[in-house]
């Protein structure tokens, strides 16, 4: 009888990763994989998972479509890992329903803005070695960040030394615009490239004219060196 009750409590077609614990929380499936020495995201997470905790592991990368089969997922905790790379389509498939995403305390220096801007979730990005640049600025402006953790998003590296160690929000409030800096850099690079091509065309034209002039002079000298028709007639 006890076994029969246990079978009734287990959802059919659902399994739990060996390294995790699956429980019910307010009628919703919670998958707890905290501090399990995981180096990558388990592939056999139940499809009906609503809460997923993968914190305090050794995960280094979030590949594309890592959670694509978890259409019911609402809360995802990836904090306190060793994440360095996040693919642009890492959260494809869960963007619509996800309410909370915790990426704090990892090794993230930069992140494709398309990976986060499609999310409606509240983001926690604090305590990462961020490189302050345009993409991060756009995320800060457009994404829904957890207000309690915004001040802990600091510049580990930046285009100018004076920004290093400061909260990104403080730098932006001071009037710094990393996107305009990138635009000016791009404009200068394009101007230099166009000037280089123009200079090459001018040099080519000059060389071409000189070469033709030399050929013309040689041809004229050659014609002068030939015996005249009158001389041959005599």
Describe the model.
The protein has 234 residues and is an alpha/beta fold. It has 2 domains: 21-176, Ribonuclease Inhibitor (Leucine-rich repeat, LRR (right-handed beta-alpha superhelix), Alpha-Beta Horseshoe); 189-218. Helices cover 35% and strands 15% of the residues. It is built from 6 helices and 11 strands. It has helices spanning 2-9, 113-117, 134-142, 168-173, 178-225, 229-233; strands at 21-25, 28-32, 49-53, 61-62, 75-77, 85-86, 100-102, 122-124, 130-131, 144-145, 155-157. The strands form 3 sheets. The protein has a 7-stranded mixed β-sheet, with helices on one face. A two-stranded parallel sheet has the order 4-6. The protein has a two-stranded parallel ribbon with strand order 9-11. Helix 3 runs antiparallel to helix 5 (178-225). The termini are far apart. Mean pLDDT is 83; it is low at 1-13, 182-188 and 229-234.
Unreliable spans: 1-13, 182-188, 229-234
- Quaternary structure state of the chains depicted: single chain
Q: What percent of the residues sit in helical stretches (DSSP H or I)?
A: 25-40%
Question: How would you name the CATH homologous superfamily of the largest domain?
Answer: Ribonuclease Inhibitor
* Backbone CA Rg: 33 Å
Largest sheet strand order: 1-2-3-5-7-8-10
How many DSSP H or I helices? 6
Mean pLDDT: 83
The N- to C-terminal Cα distance equals 137 Å
Kindly identify the CATH topology of the largest domain. Leucine-rich repeat, LRR (right-handed beta-alpha superhelix)
Order of helices and strands: HEEEEEEEHEEHEEHHH
Q: What's the architecture of the largest domain, going by CATH?
A: Alpha-Beta Horseshoe
Largest sheet: 7 strands, mixed
Q: Shape from CA axes?
A: elongated
| Percentage of residues in strands | 5-15%
Q: Provide the structure class.
A: alpha/beta
């Amino acid at each position: 009888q006890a076994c029969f009750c246990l079978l009734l409590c287990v959802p059919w077609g659902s399994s739990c990763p060996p390294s995790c614990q699956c429980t019910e929380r307010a009628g919703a499936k919670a998958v707890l994989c905290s501090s399990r020495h995981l180096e990558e995201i388990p592939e056999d997470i139940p499809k009906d998972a609503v809460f997923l905790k993968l914190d305090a592991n050794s995960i280094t990368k979030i590949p594309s479509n890592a959670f694509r089969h978890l259409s019911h997922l609402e809360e995802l905790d990836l904090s306190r890992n060793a994440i360095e790379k996040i693919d642009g389509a890492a959260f494809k498939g869960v963007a619509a329903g996800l309410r909370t995403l915790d990426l704090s305390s990892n090794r993230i220096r930069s992140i494709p803005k398309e990976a986060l801007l499609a999310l409606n979730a509240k983001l926690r990005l604090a305590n990462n070695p961020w490189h302050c640049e345009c993409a991060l600025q756009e995320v800060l402006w457009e994404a829904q960040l957890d207000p309690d953790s915004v001040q802990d998003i600091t510049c580990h590296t930046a285009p100018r030394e004076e920004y290093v160690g400061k909260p990104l929000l403080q730098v932006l409030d001071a009037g710094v615009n990393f996107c305009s800096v990138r635009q000016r850099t791009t404009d200068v690079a394009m101007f230099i490239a166009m000037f280089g091509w123009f200079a090459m065309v001018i040099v080519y034209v000059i060389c071409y004219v000189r070469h033709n002039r030399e050929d013309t002079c040689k041809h004229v000298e050659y014609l002068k060196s030939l015996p005249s028709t009158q001389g041959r007639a005599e």
